[in-house]
């Protein structure tokens, strides 16, 4: 049996994701598609707009055989850390033949060429990078200039200035470094760009769809909406009927004002509480937070109004809004540099399944036979985990319960502990 793996967020699931599943199966000749999906927090350093089990359900209804959760330390990390964690998980399953990802260029050879340099880091390239950094360029720009000089290719700007190309390079780099036999392949993104916020004719970006969801109503006090108001907002989501598969639209409408939507600003008071208890020494212990950023956070803490506003307040020409958001999320979720070092050293200590299709039990049987790590079906079943694996799982459970607490508070729905969540079976 041939299996292709997808690395996803499905935030939310849309027509482009359905196209990705279909094309991945087609170009790899795979018999089954499995997905590694971010849990309740995504790579931009914000909460997912819908809980992970709903997004997993959407993927399963679209034909994915099984969905595994990418641990939060990876899902909320830099592109490099996100890619390393996802590739490590796919590799650990022991049965994945190929990983297929979207890119703006659609050229796997161009991405491989760059990834190999970054994976091997030849001395000439490192010297060029050091020189670019000394000239005052930000790290991403310095790396871009160093790669162009090392490969003697001025056309690389067309590849290196697009987010999905960069992520694809990180996937390929992770495959090289982990010496994985998994084959990398890519498909060209169709229609909308990653950051486009306007709906197109049929395949819009997730950013545009999230904006359309946000524009569907006011979420200040959703629990106080009358049934007619809630229905009116749900009906307004019908404008997404050409953007998402029908089953996803139903899932969104059925859970609107009950389980979703969730935004970064819904975590504002939680973050403010955390910041009030921090010092420069504690802040610099969290992942990605430098002494300079710690000082900026402390100096401007009195101006905090909301999660998003504080990100905008802290960002500079050198530090992007997204990176600030990830740093603040690391504080909120208590993800430290020590944690990341331990997790990176351990690799992938387990694979946690969020859901599967009942007609794909042969895929699950294959995974159970071939997996190099324990398959976690219930968070209480931890006997086979290492100390590091147990620590990682506890961090995921805390992060998920925090997200669920926000859902409970925002929509006045019953709290469902991570220990009570059921695997989705379709």
Task: Describe the protein's architecture and organization.
The protein has 426 residues and is an alpha/beta fold. Among the domains are: 206-255; 264-334, no CATH class. 51% of the residues lie in helices and 10% in strands. The protein has 20 helices and 10 strands. The chain has helices at 15-28, 52-61, 72-75, 79-93, 108-120, 123-134, 139-151, 157-160, 163-177, 206-214, 227-236, 246-255, 268-276, 280-283, 291-300, 307-314, 321-333, 337-346, 361-370, 387-411; strands spanning 3-8, 32-38, 41-42, 46-47, 66-70, 98-103, 183-188, 351-356, 375-376, 424-425. Strands 1, 2, 5, 6, 7, 8, 9 and 10 form an 8-stranded mixed β-sheet that branches. It is globular.
Q: Mind sketching the topology for me?
A:
Blueprint: E1 3-8, H1 15-28, E2 32-38, E3 41-42, E4 46-47, H2 52-61, E5 66-70, H3 72-75, H4 79-93, E6 98-103, H5 108-120, H6 123-134, H7 139-151, H8 157-160, H9 163-177, E7 183-188, H10 206-214, H11 227-236, H12 246-255, H13 268-276, H14 280-283, H15 291-300, H16 307-314, H17 321-333, H18 337-346, E8 351-356, H19 361-370, E9 375-376, H20 387-411, E10 424-425
Parallel strand pairs: 1-2, 1-6, 2-5, 6-7, 8-9, 8-10
Antiparallel strand pairs: 3-4, 5-8
């Amino acid at each position: 049996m041939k299996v292709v793996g997808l690395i996803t967020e499905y935030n939310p699931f849309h027509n482009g994701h359905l196209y990705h599943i279909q094309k991945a199966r087609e170009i790899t000749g795979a018999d089954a598609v499995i997905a590694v999906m971010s849990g309740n927090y995504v790579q931009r350093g914000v909460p997912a707009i819908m809980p992970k089990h709903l997004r997993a359900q959407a993927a399963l209804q679209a034909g994915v055989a099984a969905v595994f959760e990418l641990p939060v330390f990876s899902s909320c990390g830099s592109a490099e850390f996100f890619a390393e964690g996802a590739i490590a998980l796919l590799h650990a399953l022991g049965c994945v033949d190929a990983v297929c990802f979207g890119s703006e260029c659609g050229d796997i050879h161009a991405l491989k060429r760059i990834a190999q340099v970054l994976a091997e880091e030849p001395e000439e390239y490192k010297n060029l990078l050091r020189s670019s950094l000394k000239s005052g360029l930000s790290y991403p720009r310095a790396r871009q200039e160093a790669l162009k000089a090392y490969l003697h290719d001025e056309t690389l700007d067309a590849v290196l200035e697009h987010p999905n190309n960069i992520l694809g390079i990180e996937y390929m780099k992770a495959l090289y470094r982990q010496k994985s036999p998994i084959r990398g392949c890519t498909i060209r993104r169709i229609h909308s760009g990653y950051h486009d916020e306007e709906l197109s004719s049929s395949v819009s970006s997730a950013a545009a769809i999230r904006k359309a969801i946000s524009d569907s109503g006011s979420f200040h006090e959703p629990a106080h909406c009358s049934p007619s108001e809630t229905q009116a907002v749900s009906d307004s989501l019908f404008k997404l009927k050409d953007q998402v598969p029908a089953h996803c639209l139903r899932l969104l409408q059925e859970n609107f004002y009950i389980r979703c939507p969730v935004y970064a600003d819904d975590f504002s008071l939680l973050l403010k509480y955390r910041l009030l208890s921090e010092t420069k020494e504690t802040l610099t212990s969290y992942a990605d937070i430098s002494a300079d950023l710690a000082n900026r956070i402390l100096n401007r803490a009195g101006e905090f109004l909301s999660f998003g506003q504080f990100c905008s307040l802290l960002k500079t020409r050198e530090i992007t809004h997204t990176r600030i958001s990830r740093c603040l999320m690391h504080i909120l979720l208590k993800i430290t540099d020590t944690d990341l070092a331990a997790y990176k050293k351990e690799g992938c200590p387990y694979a946690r399944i969020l859901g599967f299709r009942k007609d794909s039990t042969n895929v699950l049987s294959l995974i159970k036979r071939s997996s190099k790590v324990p398959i976690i079906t219930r968070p209480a079943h931890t006997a086979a985990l290492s100390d590091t694996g147990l620590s990682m799982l506890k961090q995921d459970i805390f992060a998920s319960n925090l997200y669920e607490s926000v859902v409970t508070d925002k929509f006045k729905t019953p709290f469902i502990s991570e220990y009570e969540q059921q695997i989705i079976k379709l």
